[in-house]
Amino acid sequence: MESGMISVDRWSAGSQAYFLTHLHADHTAGLSAAWRRGPLFCSRLTGKLLSCKFPGIDLSLLRIVDIGTWHSLSLTSPSSGSPTDFVFKAIDAQHCPGAVMYLFRGDFGCMLFTGDFRWETSSKGMENGRAVLLDALKNQTLDILHLDNTYCNPIFSFPSREVAARQVVDIITCHPDHEIVIAIDSLGKEDLLLYISQTLNIKIWVWPERLQFMHLLGFHQNFTTQTSLTRVRAIPRYSFSNETLEALNTLRPTIGIMPSGLPWALEASKGSGNIFGCSASGAKKKEDSRNTSSCSENSGTATRYNDYIFVVPYSDHSCYSEIQEFIELLRPVNIRGIVSSKKYCIDPHYYFDHLCGAEQALWRVQQKLEHEEGMDRAEVADIEPVAEGNSPVVGRKRKLDQIDFFGIRVSRVSLLRRLCRGAKIADTEPLS
């Protein structure tokens, strides 16, 4: 797709249409209530939350995208000035409320932008996402995959969020005389907080702006802004530090829980570290504590970081094995990581280059051919023989004997024969 047509999670001038994957701050940088640059496409739930995050934003610019439905859009080619039509589909990213991936298809090919996503192999949401993706691709080649590569490294191996949520509840129940503070963002981890609330039959304190989000999401009974009603509080992640926990412990016994993959990433990039803003004394306690484990070596279990802080691998981003399964499913020709500014992030080509390239386009065509050959044999078996020259099978099979491959009419038998020999076929190579 030409530049100057669409932007995804980027809000500078120069595009004709803008797509928002979700409302986390690193994806809305540059977006504000004063933004007026063009139509803004987002999921229905994100649109509902948008005016809360950006009061006064021009709602006439919003274009609500229903998840799992094809939408069409016509823009103007910056180079030729002619109309360019394409279709797109939003797919649940399983990241935070309203988060979606965008699949684009048109004359430019096919591309998928994941935004942030969690591809949990054991979740029902992932099964639905797999079905929607495969149905949308219909064995067509995925030319470019723009991938959430936050934890694209084999050292990151997270359990399911359900397992991690049970670890959080275990920590809370093992400290019945302690106040509990849990670090969260302004959006996300709602399922974790609801699980804690329902399992322990308690309310959870959140700050007023967060409570407003909870009400918009329909969670009215499980949260409060009255500290006297609960010993469990969810606080902004930016205020979660060792100094905060030390100060709280001067008032009453308190432990902090960080549900995230981030501490393991920071440990991996720094070797050792001051990841919770420890004071000198706090850092020394960390070094001397026998309960401290190396985050990068225990990324599947809860870890006691120091006297006050527990780290639980509850992540809303895919870990390495989940990223690998996602790429193996899609077999893109090219892959690009959407995260490059963090020291621990790795270009996905480093580990997954063997799952990309023109060979993967051939692999997908081969899967399609094998499927169609099986269907063809089944259909022919069901047709009774008729007089020669009048067979409806002849015309149909002649039509099926050729397929489109990179816009070229290709003999099915020739292509299958060459695929079986492992031949590499260039995009523009003429085929007999």
Automatic annotation (TrEMBL):
InterPro entries: DRMBL, RibonucZ/Hydroxyglut_hydro. Residues 221-339 form the DNA repair metallo-beta-lactamase domain. GO terms for molecular function: 5'-3' DNA exonuclease activity; damaged DNA binding; endonuclease activity. Coiled coil: none annotated. It holds the Pfam family DRMBL. SUPFAM superfamilies: Metallo-hydrolase/oxidoreductase. Its main location: nucleus. Keywords: DNA damage, DNA recombination, DNA repair, Endonuclease, Exonuclease, Hydrolase, Nuclease, Nucleus. Belongs to the DNA repair metallo-beta-lactamase (DRMBL) family. This is Protein artemis.
